[in-house]
Design a protein that fits this description.
This protein is 28% helix and 20% strand. It is built from 8 helices and 14 strands. It is globular. The longest helix is centred in the middle third of the chain and has 19 residues. The N and C termini lie far apart (38 Å). It is α/β, with parallel strands linked by helices.
Length: 285
């Protein structure tokens, strides 16, 4: 039964044309390594060039003009088992397909396989627990400060465990609910006045979808079974990771880089109805 399920990759590129250009290169690399790979692509129709259409097995337009369109797109996957990857990734080897083997090996009770954050390479990982908030607002913490990490050891701080730039999931009632709640929390954090939707957590966390994901998992009992992806750095090797994250004899399958913010900004859609940082989930194009 498992082998009969449809499997594919989901990629989004909206708000900045830089993401579209990166996504095209990502998909070309994927198709070079895995010619029969099925791709669901969410973007703006007016960006799509005819010479690229062969790359997109499922093309979804219109889409929100937003920097987190993936949160809107996840529950629309056409596949039974889906791997989400950020647009700013290079596919290095065909071993990317092993992610589906790992999902099958995890068994039918596993809903999501994810990679873990490496605190030494992440902008935000630790922050105070809500009951530690001073003046009603908790503070972000630094992974390189011993006193901050001690708060985490003492159970007085929280940690973003999961990296939200690559994960694999089964399409079922639980994951569909997870995706809708993830989007709802992200909007709550970023569309409320002065971001009071973050309270009592640091308002600086609002921008990060990892914060919204963490909060859903903390506050909602969805019965989701999330497991760590075996050899997760292999399939989501982020620029800045130590080479020792890759096991001896293994190769990097997916290299996750960052498009320079200046390039993203130069190619961002600017319209009077849009927030220049986030865009809008409600404005489709």
């Amino acid at each position: 039964m498992e082998s009969q399920q449809t499997k594919g990759y989901l990629i989004c590129a909206t708000l900045s044309r830089a993401f579209y250009d990166a996504a095209v290169q990502c998909i070309i690399g994927l198709k070079d390594e895995v010619p029969d790979a099925q791709v669901a692509f969410f973007t703006h129709e007016d960006w799509v060039q005819d010479e690229h259409r062969y790359l997109f097995d499922h093309l979804f337009t219109p889409t929100p003009i937003h920097n987190r369109t993936k949160l809107w797109a996840l529950d629309k996957t056409p596949f039974d088992v889906t791997m989400y990857i950020d647009a700013d990734c290079h596919i290095i080897t065909d071993e990317i397909t092993e992610v589906f083997d790992h999902m099958e090996e995890a068994g039918p009770d596993c809903d999501v396989l994810m990679s873990e954050n490496r605190p030494y390479n992440a902008k935000v990982v630790y922050f105070q627990s809500s009951d530690q908030a001073e003046d009603g607002v908790a503070k972000e913490l630094e992974h390189f400060k011993e006193q901050d990490i001690q708060l985490y050891r003492d159970g007085k701080a929280e940690k973003f465990r999961w990296h939200c730039g690559m994960f694999v999931w089964r399409k079922n009632e639980k994951t569909q609910k997870l995706w809708s709640e993830w989007l709802r929390y992200y909007r709550k954090h970023n569309e409320s006045f002065d971001r009071e939707g973050c309270d009592p957590y640091p308002r600086g966390l609002a921008y990060w979808d990892t914060f919204a994901f963490w909060r859903v998992m903390k506050e909602q009992d969805l019965g989701i079974n999330i497991q760590k992806m075996p050899k997760d750095a292999k399939y989501n090797f982020v620029i800045g990771y130590k080479q020792t994250e890759i096991r001896y004899g293994e190769e990097i399958a997916v290299l996750h880089y960052t498009i320079p913010p200046s390039v993203v900004a130069e190619e961002t859609i600017h319209e009077t109805t849009l927030n220049t940082t986030f865009g809008s989930i409600d404005v489709l194009r």
